[in-house]
Design goal:
- Helix content is 36%, strand content 19%.
- The protein is of the alpha/beta class.
- It is built from 13 helices and 13 strands.
- The longest helix has 23 residues.
- It is elongated.
- Pfam families: Gly_kinase.
- InterPro entries: Glyc_kinase_flavodox-like_fold (IPR018193), Glycerate_kinase (IPR004381), Glycerate_kinase_RE-like (IPR018197), Glycerate_kinase_sf (IPR036129).
- Keywords: Kinase, Transferase.
Length: 384
């Protein structure tokens, strides 16, 4: 009887999308199992690729739009998704305010804004959706979601009654919050945050200290940004009687998690768990013989909300073998075996720099899966 393979990888960053990784896995395995059934379920964890994964899984549609980019004067051509017969919108904040939209020299989290993400939410509301899923990975912002809130009708004023402008630098000027003009449609719309980040808004493990440097923040900027986030959270607590700064995930996307919790009433869900649910991965795993997953890197940190571990934990419930492939395997990756992995393979065939490794990702993944297939075929023959 022909075996059934479920292929459920995340993207291999800067090398392959999750769907391209599925194709590479199938290309390799089908050389050994040409008669096999392959079920491709591209995965994501709330970060890069979540939007396209959910659109593909639900056979949804793209909605093209032009919104404000990471810098207030910047306009970007972007899109969000509609699934569930148009009742659910899927927004990937990085499509509007992501780090890839700025060159390294342009990245400055004192200046960047989430205003464009708010514009996407408003456009989704215009289409009459009842639910919005928002993926928070890949941001270049550190404004606590203030820009997003401004796009949805919230106004922030300083001591002199002047409106505060956009960007993380401006947050310590906020003295008064007027949310009387917040888009009323948010009250009847379910907002779900898909994130693999559990950081609080402020402090040593908060948005500025942990993620600020990769967004272009110098040490002095990090201090200023964390101070500004703390000030902004204080004002929210004093005027809106909402304390959300310590909620795990409030620090996601430079505090956009915090802003969504406060101004839209959103709830946070593990990104990989949400994608597993939306793609109906469980029903495919239940009838599979083998499950393949993977992403660019696997290490001890993968336990914290990363796609392959989410897949492995689900497969473990059904006693199914799980094989993971990764571009690199980090320290203490062997700790992942307790999560349900049967085997973990690195896909590189030789020492190479990151550029070459990314360029050859699909070739390396295909070859690795072919070799794994040869081992599985041998095990099948010996088991007869």
């Amino acid at each position: 009887m022909a075996p059934t393979f479920v292929l459920a990888p995340d993207s291999f960053k800067e090398s392959m999308t999750a769907l391209q990784a599925c194709h590479a896995m199938q290309n390799g395995l089908s050389k050994i199992f040409p008669e096999a059934v392959f079920i491709k379920v591209p995965m994501a964890d709330g970060g890069e690729g979540t939007l396209d994964t959910l659109i593909a899984a639900a056979q949804g549609q793209q909605v093209k739009c032009q919104v404000t980019g990471p810098l207030p004067a910047q306009k970007v051509e972007s899109y969000f998704g509609l699934i569930d017969a148009g009742q659910t919108a899927v927004i990937e904040m990085a499509k509007a305010n992501g780090i890839h939209l700025l060159t390294p020299a342009e990245r400055n989290p004192l200046l960047t804004t989430t205003y464009g993400t708010g514009e996407m939410i408003r456009l989704a509301l215009d289409l009459g959706v009842s639910r919005i899923i928002i993926g928070l990975g890949g941001s270049v912002t550190n404004d606590a979601g203030a820009g997003m809130a401004q796009a949805l009708g919230v106004h922030f004023y300083d001591n002199n009654g002047h409106e505060v402008s956009l960007g993380g630098r401006e947050l310590d000027r906020v003295k008064t919050i007027d949310w009387s003009r917040l888009d009323p449609r948010l009250k009847t719309t379910e907002i779900i945050i898909a994130s693999d980040v559990n950081n609080p808004l402020t402090g040593a493990q908060g948005a500025s200290y942990i993620f600020g440097p990769q967004k272009g923040a110098t040490p002095d900027m990090v201090l200023q940004l964390d101070h500004n986030l703390s000030h902004f959270a204080d004002i929210v607590e004093q005027q809106l009687n909402l304390r959300k700064r310590e909620v795990p995930g409030a620090g996601a996307a430079g505090g956009l998690g915090f802003g969504l919790l406060v101004f839209t009433g959103a709830r946070i869900q593990s990104g990989v768990e949400l994608v597993i649910q939306e793609t109906q991965l469980e029903k495919y795993i239940a009838r599979a013989d083998y499950i393949f997953t993977g992403e660019g890197r696997l290490d001890e940190q993968s336990c914290f909300g990363k796609t392959p571990v989410g897949v492995a934990r689900l497969a473990r419930q059904y006693g199914k073998p799980v094989i993971a492939c990764a571009g690199s395997i980090g320290p203490q990756a062997d700790t992942l075996y307790k999560e349900g992995f049967t085997a973990i393979f690195g896909i590189l065939d030789q020492s190479s720099d990151i550029i070459a490794a990314c360029q050859n990702g699909a070739i390396n993944l295909e070859r690795t899966c072919e070799n794994i297939g040869r081992i599985l075929k041998l095990a099948e023959k010996q088991g007869r």
